[in-house]
């Protein structure tokens, strides 16, 4: 019985793995038939500049998400208050909004004549801060939801015990809750970071320049065709594969039992 | 145990799902038999006609679609807008099937689609480049067709155009600004408006002015003066949100979106075949190596060789170049070419030959 079940699990799982792998493998495979274009893209400074910009902007967006999202996640996991489901709903909204619409909505707020943009000394349109807000908008729900789950999985009694022993609430938060939720937070940050890196629709509305990697790929496709865009896409895929596999391994850190939550 | 039951149920659903799928296809075949009602048969025959077109044709295409579907209720027209080059690439590179292709620059069709994907082009409409603005644009009450370049020169004015590498409207805007230098006898208009704020620059070569486009990522615009987007339609939200004061756009688009616009002298706005010689003094070499010489703006349409529904595609093109289509274009601020012209009449489907003259 056990064997059949394993086979059954493996069968269904492989369908979905193949579904994800096939397009990526085909893209990379096709590229290897044209290694010359791949080599020239590898040595193209603009490609690396755009990839680094993408990773950097996404990193900034993730840091902001962690700083402002962690308290919110903690509140949502620990306290029940009127309007909590409403706030939880708000947090999820960016996941549902089409990305171009998100970009236009952000332009209304952060554009030169926007609600905030009008007074801000920082310029958002066609500038790095614009890229960061677009990435933050689409990726922050992933972080908040993961961190919330982390805090919710902690036994409340641990916090209570610490408090009855005389620890102040901040101390409890920083020495008990945060360390116990850190894996969830790390996993959430990685997801949010990855999501930010992949964003195109919202970013391109508010900031066409400076060009992030997805914009550059689209641009190469429009001006020179598929054969010019593919090498850049392959570089982005391989680079991201490397970065995220390494991160996953680090976060797991040999602790397999983490998955029980 | 519970898990096993759950999985069993899941599996059962999957199998059922597959079976009902095959069921449906059986039904589909069965509709040919007369026992089924007429409505079902109509449903069955609903033809989807795919039209890929230039972004600036969005409004006319909507009107054509409406008129066509009224005439042929069993056809559903699906329109898809993109930059003209991207529109053609969907067929030539992505292997997608389109029944009709319409480009904002007719010459892209022979250049990119002949001989494998198409064999004829009908030129059916014209357009002209204008400078669009709104009431809240800076100096909106001052600008006119003689002082526009002085207004755009002012340091607090921001304006936009689309990326010349991606979009005919983009390289045409560059041509217009450079032609203005010749027309107004002011040799630094392009420098003041564009060259100073980006890596774009016209160079004189044997009495023609050539702009060699850098790669898109190297255009490097000063974004406090210029707004560049891939497609001209993407600049609309820039002007609506007050990000820019003016942008270069087709007259038809400006009119359809209710913008105010400055009409430029016909010597520079690429509207008139009369000034074709003058237009040809400017040239843009795109980053992919393609050269475009200044010429009147003429829209082209074709039916790709791999079109799925040739018969309806022909009828759709016929509607556009017929009197009815010409009227629609006219109303939307886009002058039709009357009668439409074709480059290779011998390759044209017979049903269309009566509507065109040869160039």
Walkthrough of the structure:
The complex is a heterodimer of chains A (261) and B (359). Helix content of chain A is 79%, strand content 0%. Chain A is mainly alpha-helical and 261 residues long. Chain A has a domain at 49-211: Orthogonal Bundle (MetI-like fold). In chain A, helix 10 runs antiparallel to helix 11 (226-252). The longest helix of chain A has 34 residues, at 45-78. Chain A is globular, with a radius of gyration of 22 Å. In chain A, 35% of the residues are buried. With 359 residues, chain B is of the alpha/beta class. Chain B is 37% helix and 22% strand. In chain B, strands 2-1-3-14-4-15-16 form a seven-stranded mixed β-sheet. In chain B, helix 12 (310-321) packs across helix 13. Chain B is globular, with a radius of gyration of 25 Å. Mean pLDDT of chain B is 87; it is low at 15-42. The A-B interface holds A 1, 5, 8, 46, 49-50, 104, 107-108, 111-114, 123, 125-127, 204-205, 208-209, 211, 216, 218-226, 228 and B 3-4, 7, 11, 83, 85-86, 89, 93-94, 163, 165-166, 215-221, 223-224, 227-230, 234, 237, 241-243, 286-288.
């Amino acid at each position: 019985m056990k064997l059949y079940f394993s086979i059954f699990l493996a069968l269904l799982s492989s369908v979905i793995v193949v579904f994800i792998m096939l397009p990526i493998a085909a893209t990379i495979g096709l590229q290897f038939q044209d290694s010359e274009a791949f080599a020239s893209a590898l040595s193209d400074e603009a490609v690396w500049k755009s990839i680094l910009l993408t990773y950097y902007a996404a990193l900034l967006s993730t840091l902001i998400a962690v700083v402002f999202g962690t308290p919110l996640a903690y509140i949502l996991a620990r306290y029940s208050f009127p309007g909590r489901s409403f706030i939880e709903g708000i947090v999820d909204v960016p996941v549902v909004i089409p990305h171009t619409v998100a970009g236009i909505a952000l332009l209304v707020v952060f554009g030169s004549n926007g609600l905030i943009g009008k007074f801000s000394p920082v310029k958002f349109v066609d500038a790095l801060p614009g890229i960061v807000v677009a990435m933050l908008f689409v990726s922050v729900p992933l972080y908040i939801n993961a961190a919330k789950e982390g805090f919710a999985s902690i036994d409340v009694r641990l916090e209570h015990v610490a408090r009855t022993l005389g620890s102040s609430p901040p101390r409890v938060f920083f020495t008990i809750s945060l360390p116990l939720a850190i894996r969830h937070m790390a996993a959430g940050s990685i997801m949010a970071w990855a999501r930010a890196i992949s964003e195109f629709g919202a970013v391109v509305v508010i900031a066409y320049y400076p060009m992030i990697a997805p914009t550059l790929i689209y641009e190469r496709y429009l001006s020179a065709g598929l054969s010019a865009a593919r090498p850049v896409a392959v570089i982005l895929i391989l680079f991201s594969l490397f970065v995220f596999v390494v991160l996953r391994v680090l976060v797991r850190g040999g602790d397999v039992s983490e998955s029980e939550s | 145990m519970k898990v096993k039951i759950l999985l069993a149920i899941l599996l059962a659903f999957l199998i059922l799902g597959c079976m009902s799928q095959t069921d449906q296809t059986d039904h589909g075949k069965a509709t040919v038999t007369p026992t089924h009602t007429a409505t079902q048969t109509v449903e069955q025959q609903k033809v989807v006609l795919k039209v890929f077109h230039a972004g600036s044709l969005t409004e006319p295409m909507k009107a054509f679609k409406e008129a066509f579907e009224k005439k042929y209720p069993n056809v559903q027209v699906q329109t898809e807008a993109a930059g003209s080059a991207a529109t053609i690439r969907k067929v030539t590179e992505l292997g997608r099937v389109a029944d009709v292709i319409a480009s904002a620059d007719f010459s892209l069709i022979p250049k990119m689609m002949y001989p494998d994907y198409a064999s004829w082009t009908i030129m059916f409409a014209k357009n002209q480049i204008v400078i669009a603005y709104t009431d809240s644009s800076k100096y909106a009450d001052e600008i006119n067709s003689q002082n526009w370049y002085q207004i755009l020169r002012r340091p607090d004015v921001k304006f936009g155009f689309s990326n010349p590498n991606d979009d005919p409207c983009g390289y045409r805007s560059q041509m217009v600004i450079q032609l203005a230098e010749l027309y107004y006898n002011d040799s630094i208009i392009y420098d003041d408006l564009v060259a100073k704020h980006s890596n774009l620059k016209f160079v004189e070569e044997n009495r023609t002015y050539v702009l060699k486009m850098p790669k898109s990522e190297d255009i490097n615009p000063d974004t406090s003066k210029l707004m560049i987007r891939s497609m001209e339609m993407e600049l609309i939200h820039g002007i609506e949100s007050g990000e820019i004061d003016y942008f270069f756009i087709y007259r038809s688009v400006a009119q359809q979106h209710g913008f105010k616009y400055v009409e430029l002298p016909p010597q520079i706005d690429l509207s008139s075949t009369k000034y074709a010689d003058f237009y040809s003094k400017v040239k843009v070499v795109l980053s992919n190596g393609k050269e475009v010489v200044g010429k009147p703006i003429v829209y082209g349409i074709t039916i790709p060789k791999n079109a799925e529904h040739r018969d309806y595609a022909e009828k759709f093109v016929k509607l556009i170049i017929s009197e009815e289509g010409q009227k629609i274009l006219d109303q939307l601020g886009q002058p039709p070419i009357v009668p439409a012209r074709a480059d290779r009449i011998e390759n044209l489907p017979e049903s269309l030959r009566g509507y065109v003259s040869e160039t």
